[in-house]
Design a protein that fits this description.
There is one protein chain. The protein has one domain: Porin. It has a 16-stranded antiparallel barrel with strand order 1-2-3-4-5-6-7-8-9-10-11-12-13-14-15-16. The chain is mostly beta strands. Helix content is 8%, strand content 55%.
Amino acid sequence: MKKLLFASTALVAASVASTTLAAERITGSVGGYMMIGLVYQDNGSDPELGVLRDGEIFLQWKGTSDNGLTFDGRVELEAFTTADQIDENWARVSGSWGAIKIGSDDSASEDHERGIFYGPGARTGYFDSFYSTLFSSNAGDVPMIRYTTPNFSGFSASVDWAPNQNADGALDGGLVFGTNQQRWSIGASWDGEFNGVSVGIGAGYLWAERPVNDFTTWHVGAQIGYQGFSLGVHFDSAGNAGVEDDGALAVGLKYETGPWTFGGGVAFDTAGPDNVNWGVWVTYALAPGVTATLGYEGNDDNVPGGFDTTVSAYLRMGF
């Protein structure tokens, strides 16, 4: 009897101890990146050579409760003085039921984009990279509330709502696509692997209320990878920035081998053959977190004065 009582007591104590150890106090960390290099742009009449210096500092935190809830968040600070000093900033509570996020972030639709590739930092690309102005995605860091489902065998979905931009007393971000009253966004994606072949499929829809005409856009994309090769296809219903009832189709290819990554692709406006954007790049991993990239972008938006050629050579240092 004494042995049975001792064993039972030990079992209960072990159970209580394991429950206590399951909780983790919220701890913070600092991360970020810095990019330095040279950028040459030429629109055919006024070529320019510039210095690239861009970076962000990430303030992050994470902790868990003894009932399985996870609390985390992130604030991104620009590494130089700018009107948009704070980029994404949000906090999240998640569990077996999914996750609730409140803060300023990209749309749920953009979170589930598939089939587009970029060079490090999106400084080189062919669809909506940093220098490209021909096409745009469902981007825009705005104050919102989002629910994301748990991951079911690679499948997940998200929906978010952003209020009238004047409803946020901090006014820490205007809404995308002009002056919006509110925004709804939804997205879903599935990522899996079969016998060494990776597959990703994603789609999203965004509706933004505006004083004159509401804005709607949707996208669908897919990518497949095998032995270092990745092929991506993406269609966005609003590829031409600010033009509704338009579309853009993008096709890209990427190959990774050892420290090398080669990428490139082309995107064009389905409403006209003159609107074309293309890009190629090569990246070499110099050290953990450090890459060197040489990239080229060309675009023809048929608008006088727009940059037609961009050549960039830069280092990206992540920490």
